[in-house]
Amino acid sequence: MRRVNPLDPLIQELKKWPGIGEKSAQRLAFFLLSLKQNDVTKMAHTMVDTRDSIKYCKDCFNISLHDQCHICSSTKRDRASLCIVAEPKDIFAIEKTHAYTGIYHVLGGLISPLDGVHPESLRIKELIQRIQNNTFHEVLFAINPSIEGDSTSLYLTSLLEPFKLNITKLAYGLPMGSDIDYADEITLTKAISARREITNSIPIMP
């Protein structure tokens, strides 16, 4: 007779979380089992309530509790500088450094044809509209240093070339293939402060 692990359904759900394998999921399952019923209930309700209450900013597509995020609604931000990121989590990492005071645009991913992510899958049309309707002096690509990240940056550089903007990207210091949200604050601060201009481009993809 096959032995049934009563925690297996919970372990399988926990394994869906990023960076969580079989052993980590099992440890978390036993940890949850050790909590008081009220604590588990509160945690579950908080997760559901957070997921239901989160919206996407109508301007930059950052996560927010309101139609406009706290960055876009702030009067203290430099609205002549636009930082392009792949995901909202990248904004959180950059904001911790206090090295950037402009506003953001979240693409919603990176171009990766092998994964079925094409330019039209991202918020590139919205990006172009923002640039057409606003006066930006700098566009900073704060995108993961990876094949997908470099391809996305070069594609966007070609699209933005007619606007005659100062297009920059994070300086070296972030390892190839790394995620911005995993970088320590000192490394990320230096990468922002020493950002450099992008001068090369590639033909626009069909």
Task: Give a brief outline of the structure.
The protein has 206 residues and is α/β, with parallel strands linked by helices. The protein is built from 7 helices and 7 strands. The termini are far apart.
CATH architecture of the largest domain: 3-Layer(aba) Sandwich
**How many β-strands, per DSSP?**
7
- Whole-number total of structural domains: 2
Strand content is 5-15%
Low-confidence segments, given as residue ranges, are: 201-206
* Neighbour order of strands in the largest sheet: 4-3-5-6-7
Q: How do the strands and helices of this protein lay out in sequence?
A:
Elements: H1 8-14, H2 22-34, H3 37-53, E1 55-56, E2 63-64, E3 78-85, H4 88-97, E4 102-106, H5 124-133, E5 138-141, H6 147-160, E6 166-169, H7 185-193, E7 196-197
Parallel strand pairs: 3-4, 3-5, 5-6
Antiparallel strand pairs: 1-2, 6-7
Helix pairs in contact: 1-2, 4-7
Describe the structure.
This protein starts with 7 loop residues before the first helix and ends in a 9-residue tail after the last strand. It has 2 domains: 8-53, Orthogonal Bundle (Helicase, Ruva Protein, domain 3); 76-197, Dna Topoisomerase Vi A Subunit, Chain: A, domain 2, CATH 3.40.1360. The chain has helices spanning 8-14, 22-34, 37-53, 88-97, 124-133, 147-160, 185-193; strands at 55-56, 63-64, 78-85, 102-106, 138-141, 166-169, 196-197. It contains 7 helices and 7 strands, in the order H-H-H-E-E-E-H-E-H-E-H-E-H-E. The strands form 2 sheets. Strands 4-3-5-6-7 form a 5-stranded mixed β-sheet. Strands 1-2 form a two-stranded antiparallel sheet. It is elongated, with a radius of gyration of 20 Å. It has 206 residues and is an alpha/beta fold.
